[in-house]
Amino acid sequence: MEEIKVGVFLSDCGNQLPKILDFDALMSYVKQVSGVSLVARANEHWRGQGLKTIVDTIKKGKINRVVVAQGLPKLGEVNVVKAVEEAGLNPYLVEVIDLKDHCAWPHRDTPSEATEKAKAMLLAAIERAKLLEPIEKLEFPTLKSVLVIGGGIAGMQAAEDLADLGFQVHLIEKAPFLGGLAARASRFFPTDDCAICIQSPASDVKTITHTSRKCVYRSGFSEIPNLSILTNSRVVNAEGIPGNYRITIEKKPRYVNELKCVGCDLCTTVCPVEVPDEHNAKLKKRKAIYMNVPNVYPPVYVIDESACKFYDCAKCVEVCPTEAIELDQKSERMTLNVGSVIIATGFQEYDPSVIKEYHYGDFPNVITNLELARMIDGFGPTNGEVIKPSDRKPAKQIVMIQCVGSRDRRWNPWCSSICCMISLKHAMLIKSADPDADVTVCYIDIRTTGREHEYYYERAREMGIKFVKGRPTEVVHDPEVNMLIVDVEDQISRKFLELEADLVVLAPAMVPAEGTKELAQILGIELDEDGFFKEYNAKLRPTETKLRGIFLCGGATFPKDAPTTSLHAHSAAVKAAKFLTTGKIVKDQRTAFVNEEYCGDCEFCPVTCPYGAISLVPKDEEHFVAQISDLLCEGCGVCVGTCPVNAIELRHTRPNQILAQMNALMSVNGTSKPLILAICCSECGHAAVDSCGMAMMQYPANIRVMKVPCTGILQVHQFLEAFKAGAEGVMVVGCKSDGCHYEVGSLKAQKKVELAKVLLKEYGLEPERLEMFNMVYIEGNEFAETAQMMTERLERLGPLRLMGSS
Amino acid sequence: MALEKEVKKSQLPFSKEIMTQLGGETVTFCYQCGTCASSCPVAKITEKFNPREVIKQSLLGEKEETLSGDAIWLCCSCYNCQERCPQKVEIADVIYALRNMSIRRGNIPNIYAEFAAGLMSEGRIVPISKFLEKKRPEFGLPPLKSTGIDSLRKILSTTGFDAIWQKGEEES
Q1: Do A403 and B86 touch (CB under 8 A)?
Q2: What is the pLDDT of residue A198?
Q3: Domain match, A315 and A401 both
Q4: pTM of the predicted structure, to 2 decimals
Q5: What is the separation of C-alpha B75 from the centre of its chain, rounded to a whole number of angstroms?
Q6: CB A545 within 8 A of CB A551
């Protein structure tokens, strides 16, 4: 085996650190540590001459392990590691510590104590460096193709972006036509323009300009190169790994050949079956063979198989001039191989009939916003006229009720966020078509938070639309005047009103689209507590799911207006493109591995892994072993902390490395206070220590910080080892339990600390010597206070006495 | 490590104090939509009572006005509001909680004092006269059973009801 030669590089920060730390003492201390073959000192080592020294010594073969003491948490480390890799040494053979922010600054009042602590920190870094092993880069090939699920505005937008970027895109839609909810909404706020207007594809060479936009059906959307569209289709199975998914699609029969149908309309004229038209809120009837509206994609008829009489009638077959009707069509299944999946399944209107007091479903003149939208649509069932469904006469007195089944703990507790604007839009469209119409909106709060949305509300008031602040208790029917009565308290005038209405329009909650739960199950991704697809982190990782390669956009994550949906779709498209563009995933093997000899049959780790990276595979006829996917493993070590037989290790944080660090950190005290080991996670916990030091907050030098990837890696015996190594107290510092970077790590650590406390008590030690804390970066002051508090606590408890000693 | 401070109930903000009472737990759910007010048969005939306003007053911390005022005694306990509240505020129960708090301060409206006196002496809220008792057979009703007044008094004393009532008697 190659001889280990550690190079230690100390930054003195422009000679500022030596004002506190005795650098001569540190240099001579480090020189005598076994394995150290070089000690150098510079202003800084993360750039310029200092960095060059590191690179040169590596290139000359003088050292094969690097320890750098450098300020600038993380930034310094990133640069050093990059340079080391370029110099030809494996980047995982580098250990970077921060003598400034973790030692000199927070202990500036006690320089000699700080120097002793610095020795311990350097020794710990050197001992760990000696045990480090190279970690290799792995490559996983990815396919340059994407499946987009959902043909509404979100899905179409994302599909267009990706196809324009050169990816092979499959867009599938469960309905027979594209357009989704937008196609039924008719117009969008706050511009009142057509809902089905989209950005023109770049492939539309003849008319494309920077400002170009077109209706879906005029856009040439379907002719975008690399884009294939499947309607009447849904996902029925999914297999594979990020970058390589095999998705099974089921395409329901259309019974009309898309390549032959010319859209001549002869079939509908002869079709004898009439059914209520769902697309048009059942306000008109349609034939069993139909198109939603004249301008749809695909511009091809479809047969409603629940209504058609097939060969008992077959009149359409006789009359079709192109023999396009094929009553024998069957469901087809096909498999798509894609690198990535974008979910754009949208949302839908909640069925408000559960709220009995509003009598939706009982009174024909109580309708929903979407039904009203169909009436307002010129292509709709009433050719744009707002009518009373009971007698089809024009509606003159209209009352709108907001928050129906949303902001309601009984049904859907969330604010659906777009209904206020939808109702304002409808109120104004009605009022501008018929200035005599009397429109009243009953609201709890009007929420107009988007760009120009408040001006929209202003305009509504100018137009004479009335607003009543109050949620009505019920809608009743008065047979004498044949009107609906809406019973509401106007809180502003403190009056009880009985509003007469010939049409009551409810603004129901917006809820996840039908089939959301099933799709989540098939793809193995999570839903949030409200049943929408869960974004991995709405602030930091929007449109991403926990599974790499599966992205979300549009109303599938929460109800959204069109501009936000569009933004979201672009975001998902960029994320998918970024993921697939190089054709491979490059990833360090900074992962966990299983020692198969010890592993045996328990199922703890697959259940605990937050990333689903662990599976059980047969070892022999009777036994299973855990197998960890290097692609899915994030290297947190939660499995290591969970394994009851120590069969799992992290390649970059081995147990012997942890132990060597602990022993080194506890080797020198130099203060009169009890030594405390602070085991911090590499994320929020360590960041709190960084920020504490950077702000020069003071805490005693008996606190020794050790970094682990995530506190979830810790095992109960490690706390005991810390005491054995000389610690009189142990602090575990992790992320907040709901903000853990590895989801469950912090909680797991908390449980283990509790368990260890029980053991300590059994052994005759005070359980308060061990404590778990949760902090974030901005809580550096809390780290200082906690360190002080623990020190005082341990001083009070006195020296550690093991059982049997006196 | 944040240390939980022990706070006495009386030092709590009024809305929190209500939450510690049986029935008052949901008071802070209220977002003032007014469904309760338009559901309320009492509010429609008198301006003295509006359930939404009782809750609002409580949330604003107006303890004195809420507990000494007439409003909380006007609720007819039909539970219409509670049935329809979209935030699951148990409005009628909150009002009971407020009444309990008011009574503990010795503020007992006469009618309730009479109920309490009847309960303590006869075991019944409504006194039964000899005349009424004689009338019962005419309507096919069985004779009234004994109220078990001794056991009842034990319960009323163990639960502290008699002490609360006594306090109210003294103050009025």
Answers
A1: yes
A2: 72
A3: no
A4: 0.89
A5: 9
A6: yes
Q: What are phi and psi of B46, to 5 degrees?
A: -140, 140
- Assess if residue B2 is contained within a domain: no
- Which residues span the domain enclosing A609? 589-637
Which residues does chain B have within 8 Å of residue A474's beta carbon, measured at their own beta carbons?
Answer: 38-39, 84
Measured between CA atoms, the residue of chain B closest to residue A414 is: B87
Judge contact between A770 and A678, C-beta under 8 A: no
* Overall domain count for chain A: 6
- Would you give the end-to-end CA distance of chain A in angstroms? 46
Residue A140 φ/ψ, nearest 5 degrees: -125, 120
Tokens 């501009």 belong to residue: A563
Q: Cβ separation of A403 and B33 shorter than 8 Å?
A: yes
One-letter-per-residue 3-state SS of B115-141: HHHHHHHCCCCCCCCHHHHHHHHHHCC
Say whether B33 and A470 touch across the interface (CB within 8 A): yes
> Choosing among B25, B28, B35, which should be mutated to test the A contact, i.e. which has the most A CBs within 10 A?
B35
- DSSP tag of A537: B
Cβ pair A177, A216 in contact under 8 A: no
Residue B141 within a domain: yes
Last residue of a domain, one of B86, B104, B122: B104
Q: Report which of A730, A723, A732 is spatially closest to residue A801, judged by C-alpha positions.
A: A723
Same domain, A126 and A45: yes
Which residues lie closer than 8 Å to A473 by C-beta, 6 or more apart?
Answer: A357, A487, A488, B35, B38, B39, B80, B84
Q: Is residue B146 part of a domain?
A: yes
Same domain, B94 and B120: no
Q: Specify the residue for token string 């008792």.
A: B133
- Interface subset of A 437-476, CB within 8 angstroms of B: 444-445, 469-474
Give the C-alpha separation, A477 to A499, whole Å: 11
CA atoms of A463 and A459, how far apart (whole Å):
6
The C-alpha angle with vertex A79 and arms to A73 and A83, in degrees rounded to 5, equals 145
What is the predicted ipTM? 0.83
Share above pLDDT 90 across residues of chain A, in percent, rounded to a whole number:
85
Q: Taking residues A716-721, what's their average pLDDT? A: 93
Least confident of A483-497, A639-653, B8-22: B8-22
Contact across the interface for A473 and B29, Cβ inside 8 Å: no
pLDDT tens, A140-165? 999 999 999 999 999 999 999 999 99
